[in-house]
Specification:
alpha+beta; Outer membrane efflux proteins (OEP); 9 helices; about 15% strand; elongated
């Protein structure tokens, strides 16, 4: 599930040059962006689908009107022989004509449709799943912001360390030039320093490329173009609970089961409906007296229908059953993956916290060693290669420390998503 926490976000938005002084600013901005609003609209669609199914409980009422011309006289409404004889005896026009106009109203009222309740339950589960999915997507986007900001912090700290080292090398090079001019040191020593400075410049350039990509990730989610990473502090520990990431899938399984139940009810239960119609019929020039005729006509009908043999309904039941098995297996697979990943992340977090402290102490030792190395190299008691190794060692120790800090925040963010913790409350 956490594989979806990617640094690639498909919803690109306009860059807004705003400042953010805290993680809360970034999380607040996230709530207002299209990437979050899209999930809100998807959730609304699910609720609308629920209303659509429930609408089937209501009667369907339609009005109609038509004008029809026949090739021979046709009755406006059914007429028995006795009624015809009575009309003839009274000299009334007969309701037969070649041209007939009708206007009326027709209604169908569902009385009993067994599968509607199951279908209604299905869309309720899907609507609930959409709500959980919306929440999960928001938590994942919060995690991406935290991960990007942590990586940005790591990169900026690394850039600072690289620039300090570069400055140190330039100073060493300046002192070395004096020694080269006096003939005490070969000129090739300057070339080695120049090459090391060039390598650092290349590294700085490559790191800045990564920095640009991280800033872009934050802009896409928040609309805020950061100039520098935001400081992060742990406000409270991750609350271990049930895996929140499973909730959307659990509702999907329930929906699949309701869908199968509806298919089964559609196959084996009858449908009962009431039909009503009233029509006002008009005709010109009846067949006997050439007079206009007007007759009202209506009926109500209570009907029942039930499939005796319908292979498509049987096939549909089998399909729904397969979908249930598929959704259950996906749920179990995700549950196993989350359990394994959560266990690994907790272990990693413990190691990272310990590693952070150890690597911080290493930086202090490497700084002291570099100070001694500079003196020894200046006095000629250390080779240039050995001195440069101390410069490299300090950069490496700083890089390792900043990377451990970054990984710590990323691990906390992933755990927050797994357990459904809002990072706005966890990190400030």
């Amino acid at each position: 599930m956490l594989k979806t926490i990617s640094l690639i976000i498909v919803f690109a938005i306009a860059t807004v040059d705003l400042s953010a002084t805290s993680m809360k600013d970034l999380f607040t901005a996230l709530k207002k962006q299209p990437v979050t609003k899209v999930d809100t609209e998807i959730s609304k669609i699910a609720k609308a689908a629920e209303k659509k199914v429930n609408a089937a409980y209501y009667p369907s009422i339609n009005i109609f009107a038509n004008y029809t011309h026949y090739n021979s006289p046709t009755n406006l409404r059914p007429l028995d022989p006795l009624a015809t004889a009575k009309l003839n005896s009274n000299g009334d026009p007969l309701p037969f004509s070649q041209t007939i106009q009708k206007i009326g109203i027709k209604a169908t009222v569902p009385i009993f449709i067994k599968e509607l309740a199951s279908l209604s339950q299905k869309v309720k589960y899907l609507a609930k799943s959409a709500q959980f999915k919306k929440r999960l997507n928001f938590l994942q986007n919060e995690a991406i912001i935290v991960a990007s900001n942590a990586s940005l912090k790591y990169i900026d700290s690394l850039l600072t360390a690289l620039r300090v080292t570069r400055k140190s090398l330039i100073k060493t090079e300046s002192n070395l030039k004096i020694s080269v001019k006096s003939g005490r040191t070969p000129a090739i020593a300057l070339d080695k320093i120049d090459e090391k400075v060039n390598q650092i410049d290349i590294t700085i350039n490559n790191v800045n490329i990564k920095r640009t990509a991280l800033l872009s990730n934050i802009v896409k989610l928040t609309g805020i173009k950061l100039k520098a990473p935001v400081d992060m502090f742990l406000n409270k520990k991750i609350k271990k609970d049930n895996f929140f990431a499973l909730k959307p899938l659990e509702e999907v399984v329930k929906a699949s089961m309701s869908d199968y139940k509806a298919a089964k009810e559609k196959r084996y239960y009858p449908k009962v409906a009431l039909s009503l119609l009233w029509s006002e019929n008009y005709a010109q020039h009846d067949v006997k007296y050439d007079k206009d005729v007007h007759r009202g006509y209506g009926y109500y009908s209570l009907g029942i229908s039930m499939p005796l043999f319908d292979k498509t309904l049987d096939s549909d039941m089998q399909l729904k059953k397969i979908i249930i098995m598929k959704d259950k297996m996906k749920l179990q697979k995700t549950k196993n993956e989350l359990a394994s990943e959560a266990d690994t992340l907790w272990k990693q977090l413990k190691l990272l916290l310990n590693s952070e402290e150890l690597k911080k102490n290493t930086i202090k030792k490497e700084e002291n060693l570099l100070t001694y190395a500079k003196v020894a190299y200046k006095e000629g008691r250390m080779t240039e290669e050995d001195y440069l190794r101390y410069e490299d060692a300090l950069i490496s120790s700083k890089s390792n420390y900043y990377e451990a800090v970054s990984q710590k925040w990323q691990t906390i963010a992933k755990l927050a998503v797994i357990y459904g913790n809002d990072l706005e409350g966890v990190i400030k």
